[in-house]
Write a structure and sequence with these properties.
flat, single chain, about 70% helix, mainly alpha
Length: about 120
């Protein structure tokens, strides 16, 4: 400390903003660079989501019975849970058996659809 009343403080060297390529210092990039990074990140996520929807729609077109089987399974399960909540044991048991049948049908549709798509892909 000096005698004139001013404090002598240790100031850490001010971090210079670094570019995206130079991350060795561990400093955050400038806000404009951060916004660019965030925009690139969200653009990549949106691109991946659109690819996911494209894959999903392509899969539904190839084998429409699998999503249909999933919807039937969910419907039967919901009906069984409601019956269980209403304490209707007979209907609840019946719905759980139907659920297993619906799940089995979905699995069979998945296997048959996969085999068919492989067969037709080889013949082309």
């Amino acid at each position: 400390m000096s005698n004139d009343g001013s404090k002598l403080e240790y100031l850490a060297p001010r971090a210079k903003p670094v570019s995206i390529e130079d991350k060795k210092g561990g400093y955050l990039p400038e806000p404009s660079d951060r916004m660019t990074l965030e925009n690139n990140f969200y653009d990549e996520i949106n691109k991946n989501n659109s690819r996911s929807w494209d894959k999903l729609s392509e899969g539904v077109k190839k084998n429409p019975f699998v999503p249909l089987g999933c919807l039937v399974t969910i419907g039967v399960l919901a009906n069984g849970i409601l019956a269980m909540r209403n304490k209707d044991r007979l209907k609840s048991q019946r719905m759980m058996r139907y659920r297993i049948a619906a799940q089995g049908s979905t699995i069979i549709a998945l296997v048959i659809g996969t085999m068919a798509s492989n067969y037709f892909a080889k013949s082309e």
